[in-house]
Amino acid sequence: MTATISKNKKSNWGISDIPDLEGKTVFITGANSGLGYYTAKALAEKNAHVLLACRSLEKANSAIEKLKSLNPEGKFTPIELDLSDLNNVSEIGSTISSRLDKLDLLINNAGIMHPPKTLSAQGFEIQFAVNHLAHMLLTMKFLPLMEKEENSRIVTVTSGAQFFGKVGWNNLKAEKYYNKWESYANSKLANVMFALEINEKLEKKNILSLAAHPGIAKTNLFSAQKPKPSPIETFSLELFSPIFQSAEMGALPQLFAATSPEAKGGEHYGPKFNFRGHPKLSPTSPFALNKKERKNLWEKSMEIISSFL
HSE-up of 250 (CA within 13 Å, CB side)? Predict the structure, then answer.
C-alpha cells in the first residue's frame, strides 16, 4: 500500500475537492459533534441529504439548527439512535430502510472512548458494543437499501489505536478483566477488520467498504470521558495538545473515503503525517490484514447480531 493518494494528483485534498452530491442520501452516526458534525456539514454543503443519527433528538436537532444557520439550504433529517442497544439499532435500521428509496453513503463514525467498566443492553463491553457491534448490525440492516444504488459506500471510522489491539475476542463481556485502553484499541481494531472483511464479501454487489482514521484530532471523545481523565492523562493531553489537529481537519480522511473518485474499496485512509495533515493512504494493523483473524471476528460478531437482523 503506497504512502500517497496519487503521485500525479493533488496531495492536499480538501473539502473543495468533494464533488457535487445532489440527489445523494447519507446516514452518519454521531453526527452532532466532532468528526461527525464536520462530516455532515461538508456533505450538506455539497448538496447531499444528511441523516444525523445521534443519541437523542435533542442533540440531533441542536446540531441541525447550527448547521442550518451556516447553510440554510442544507437538507437534514434528525435520527435518534442508541448504539448501546442492539434492539434499538435493529429497529432504527428497519424504520429507515422502510422510509428511504435508497442510501448512497453510510458513515459509521460514532464512538466512545475509555469509559469505566460498563456493559451494553445486551451485556457486552460497551466500547466493543458501540464502536463495533452496533455499526456492524446497522450496516447489515442497510445493505439491501444500499444495493439499490450503484457505487454506494460504507465508511467505518477507526483510529491509530488499532495497532494496540489484540485479536482473540475471548473477553467480550469484560468478564475476565477490564482495561479501558485495551478495550478501546480492540474496538478500533475490530472496526478496520470489519471494513476490510465486508468489502471482500460485497465485491460482487457494487458496494465499497473503506476505513478511515482522523489522526490526533480535538474531538469530544476526550472531554466526554466519565469519569474525567486522571491528572496524568490530563497532563499528557495538554502536553501534546499543540500537535493535535482540528476536528474539521480530522474529518478529511473519512470525507475522502466517502466521496473521492480515487478512493477504492478495502483501502484505509488517514492524515498525511499519520497524526495530522491532509488525507492519504494509511498503514493498517497487521492483524487486520490476516484473513483468518478477520473471519474469526466476523463469525463471532454474526453470532451476536444475527438475532437482531
Answer: 25
H-type alpha helices, 165-230: 180-201, 220-223
Q: What are phi and psi of 162, to 5 degrees?
A: -55, -30
Q: Which residues are catalytic?
A: 184
- pLDDT one-digit tens code per residue, 203-242: 888 899 999 999 997 666 545 555 666 565 444 444 445 5
pTM (two decimals): 0.91
- AA identity, residue 283: P
**Residue 14 counted as domain residue:** no
Compute the distance between CA of residue 105 and CA of residue 19 in angstroms, rounded to an integer: 14
Domain harbouring 103, CATH code? 3.40.50.720
Within-domain flag for 5: no
SS3 assignment for 26-88:
EEEECCCCHHHHHHHHHHHHCCCEEEEEECCHHHHHHHHHHHHHHCCCCEEEEEECCCCCHHH
How many domains does one find in the chain?
1
